[in-house]
Amino acid sequence: MRAGVGFLSSSAGFLTADLFPSSHLPLKPILFPSTNPNRIAVKTPPPPPTRRPLTAAFSAMASASKPKEARVPPALQLLTPPVSKFKIALCQLAVTADKERNIAHARKAIEEAAGKGAKLVLLPEIWNSPYSNDSFPVYAEDIEAGGDAAPSFSMLSEVARNLQITIVGGSIPERSGDCLYNTCCVFGADGKLKGKHRKIHLFDIDIPGKITFKESKTLTAGQHPTIVDTDVGRIGIGICYDIRFQELAMLYAARGAHLLCYPGAFNMTTGPLHWELLQRARAADNQLFVATCSPARDSSSSYVAWGHSTLVGPFGEVIATTEHEEAIIVDEIDYSLIELRRSNLPLEKQRRGDLYQLVDVQRLNSE
């Protein structure tokens, strides 16, 4: 007996073609025994069922899945920023054991960036000190005391005021009472401190044969997310290891951030694998801008930084980056891209609040 060609039929107790979505590829014919060896039988499947317009189906799904309840409290509406376009500078600096030199060098870089039109300048993680547990207590500053007790802090405040720019001051070791923190200070164009972020997630890592480092030997973890309203938009702050925790970035997005800034110093093990990956993920997941700034690489140092300071757009695209040497990157941020990407992919309207929630504990308790 020769084989013919046909489609599964509901009369034989099988699924029929009209049960499959029209978006699937057409069903392939299958072989079945034919009673007539001289002809091939082809059975045409019935037409697909009438489907509702996509917009109606989307609206029904969005309503049923309760997207507003996916963030608790509900996500804040993205406010119109003070400027729609501006230039940002990422100052990838070489760091030495000479603190006075580091401070003067950072000042010069900021002034150069401002001269190129930058309205926001981002510095690296631990730019005034070698990155080591032995150095943190020695180079730490009492930010609350200010003045001579905090020369790095004072320089950033002065330069921000003189140049009338916003500075996300990388991070420095901070002494507060008996505790040491890895701290980022944000200064407004008037030179005043607008926000202070203490690194929330301490870098404790052990990869045998590659790298072992434990910040918790000397540093204390911060207890608060930090989001700051500036002349160039609402900025969420994280420091290095903080970028690995997507919940923090999601929280900042729900608080209406336009830009996330992460001063960081990824190393030669994790840097090649994860540095750019994590930046692009945080930007694409939350559909906002992400800027990072690393120290330049010093192969003679006990901790060797990967470098590659980068600016990423809200579609996960790399706008600007550099290699591992000292560099000042100046490029443009265009906030209109946020609205464009969120209209292209309306993630906020598609979240499944009926299945999962992000809870902003501190914001919930304060309301």
Characterise the protein shown here:
This protein is of the alpha/beta class and 367 residues long. It has 2 domains: 1-47, no CATH class; 85-366, Nitrilase/N-carbamoyl-D-aminoacid amidohydrolase. Helices cover 25% and strands 25% of the residues. It contains 9 helices and 19 strands. It has helices at residues 54-65, 99-115, 135-139, 151-163, 246-254, 271-286, 336-344, 347-350, 361-366; strands at residues 3-6, 30-33, 71-72, 85-92, 118-122, 166-168, 172-176, 179-187, 193-198, 204-207, 211-214, 226-230, 233-237, 259-263, 289-293, 310-312, 318-321, 327-334, 358-359. The strands form 5 sheets. Strands 4, 5, 6, 7, 8, 9 and 18 form a 7-stranded mixed sheet that branches. The protein is globular and about 75 Å long.
Please render the helix and strand layout as text.
Blueprint: E1 3-6, E2 30-33, H1 54-65, E3 71-72, E4 85-92, H2 99-115, E5 118-122, H3 135-139, H4 151-163, E6 166-168, E7 172-176, E8 179-187, E9 193-198, E10 204-207, E11 211-214, E12 226-230, E13 233-237, H5 246-254, E14 259-263, H6 271-286, E15 289-293, E16 310-312, E17 318-321, E18 327-334, H7 336-344, H8 347-350, E19 358-359, H9 361-366
Parallel strand pairs: 3-19, 4-5, 5-6, 13-14, 14-15
Antiparallel strand pairs: 1-2, 4-18, 6-8, 7-8, 8-9, 10-11, 12-13, 15-16, 16-17
Helix pairs in contact: 2-4
